[in-house]
Design goal:
Helix content: 40-55%
CATH topology of the largest domain: Beta Polymerase, domain 2
Distance between the termini: 56 Å
Number of helices: 22
Number of domains: 4
Number of strands: 11
CATH architecture of the largest domain: 2-Layer Sandwich
Radius of gyration: 31 Å
Oligomer: single chain
Mean pLDDT: 90
Structural class: alpha+beta
Length: about 475
């Protein structure tokens, strides 16, 4: 079978082979080539050449570790640099901290190198002709859509406990299932995840949530006993019944809210906000059944969301944004009561840059509650009012000149004539925005100052009001209100 291997990767393989060494593409890039449903992003090469021999063949490279990995630089046509990791065959031993090997030994056989890898689907090697070396049944597992460890699951997970998370992430990313023996080992060894840095856990969680199946990912994290070491607060929502129009418990509601953002291919920020928006409901619940209440859960939830994301070492700016969306996701809106002033206040609180995502979060919240209609009239009307408020108003502030310029620079006498001139000029630039330049407006203002402007003023005001009605009608039609 022909695989689309980039020319610079083939060049590295060819250079190593011409020098008498073995060389293979290895890992996830081979897996993705075989699956054929996505283009590999990272290319890793393994070889029996020693690091110093690799450096001799590729002088434009870096070697700053003790694991046998040389970074070979490839300069793209646009002058950007891609680092291709070329690693000497090796085996590892004595993982005393569930993270790092105490010893790394270079070996001469490809099979020994592949034996140290995490899962069979990642333990495939491919030469430059596209021939695959498969010592552990990786091709069969790819076909059967199975995540299985290379060798004994317990050994692989005790070497690096992050593999517990990686197993879940690969299963969700690839839409595979975890092989039963591997699954049991994850469940039993889940506490080892406490040895892993939060940044590494965060990165796996982020990759999982960026898939179309994030909800299944959290269910699998729960079923593998890993969730209690990632976001244990989510488990508090299991079995917590809600009130009103909600048909799911808090746990399922949070997952379904997040999943709607995934289904709409919305941002990672929205997915995380959906997951955490009602995180405080179990802690704020009062009463039982459909009459129970969750007073101030959005305020408590904003604090909890920030703490969770901070614990996982997400950037503080990201944590603050999600916290703000959680804080204001309960915004009140009734078409007969809410005014433009109250919407402006909400926009000031949540931020102009967040208001559209706040509306999307409300849509996700509705679908996650079991409500069939994502955008009812009230929400569409809120969108209409928000866009109306956010648009620059049609008023004299649109002009590049003002009354001070007319009085002090053009020596036009202060009085009603100033307002008349500005209204006539505004009507003119509404018809032709290209005229909104200081020099043109000054010239036009001086000419208008010598005319009787009463009739022009009336026509100008009528035109301005007509433009305002037209703008409002366009926005109304956009949101079907």
């Amino acid at each position: 079978m022909n695989y689309n291997i980039p020319t610079h990767i083939i060049f590295i393989l060819h250079t190593l082979e011409e020098a008498g060494f073995e060389a293979f593409i290895v890992g996830g890039s081979v897996r993705d080539l075989v699956l054929g449903d996505k283009k590999p992003v990272d290319w890793d090469i393994t070889t029996n050449a020693l690091p110093e021999q690799i450096q001799e063949l590729f002088p434009d490279s870096v070697y700053e570790n003790t694991f046998g990995t040389v970074g070979v630089k490839y300069r793209r046509p646009d002058e950007s640099v891609e680092i291709i990791e070329v690693t000497t065959y090796r085996k590892e031993s004595q993982y005393t901290d569930n993270r790092h090997p105490e010893q790394v030994e270079f070996v001469s056989e490809l099979s020994q190198d592949l034996a140290r890898r995490d899962f069979t689907v990642n333990a495939l090697a491919m030469d430059k002709q596209g021939q695959i070396q498969d010592y552990f049944g990786g091709l069969d597992d790819l076909q059967a859509k199975i995540i299985r460890t290379v060798g004994e699951p317990k050994d692989r997970f005790e070497e690096d406990a992050l593999r517990l998370m990686r197993a879940v992430r690969f299963a969700i990313q690839l839409d595979f299932i975890i092989e039963p023996k591997t699954l049991v080992a994850i469940q039993n060894l889940a506490p080892n995840l406490e040895h892993i840095a939060q940044e590494r856990i965060r990165d796996e969680l982020t990759k999982m949530m960026q898939t179309p199946r994030a909800m299944n990912g959290y269910i699998l994290l729960r079923d593998t006993n890993l969730l209690q070491f990632v976001i244990p607060e989510l488990l508090e929502g299991i079995g917590v019944e809600q009130n009103g129009h909600h048909i799911y418990d808090v746990w399922e509601h949070l997952l379904r809210t997040m999943q709607h953002a995934c289904d709409r291919s919305w941002s990672f920020d929205l997915r995380m906000a959906g997951l955490l928006h009602d995180i405080a409901k179990p802690r704020t619940k009062e009463g039982i059944g459909k009459t129970s209440t969750f007073h101030n859960h959005e305020i408590v939830g904003a604090s909890m969301a920030y703490e969770i994301l901070n614990r996982l070492h997400y950037p503080k700016k990201f944590a603050a944004r999600i916290s703000k969306l959680v804080r204001y996701h309960m915004f009140y809106y009734d078409t007969n009561e809410v005014t433009e002033a109250s919407i402006r206040k909400l926009i000031r609180n949540v931020g102009v840059e967040n208001i559209k995502d706040l509306i999307k979060l409300r849509e996700c919240d509705r679908i996650g509650s079991g409500t069939p209609k994502a955008r009812p009239y009230r929400l569409r009307h809120f969108e209409y009012m928000t866009e109306k408020v956010l648009l620059d108003p049609i008023d004299l502030s649109m002009l590049k000149i003002d009354g001070n310029i007319l009085i002090h620079e053009l020596s036009i006498t202060a009085g009603p004539i100033i307002g008349m001139i500005l209204n006539v000029l505004l009507a003119e630039i509404l018809e032709d925005p290209s005229k909104n330049s200081i020099e043109y407006l000054k010239t036009q203002a001086q000419a208008l100052a010598t005319q009787d402007l009463k009739d022009l003023k009336i026509k100008a005001i009528n035109l301005i009001e007509e433009k305002q009605r037209e703008q409002d009608e366009i926005i109304r039609k956009k949101f079907f209100v």
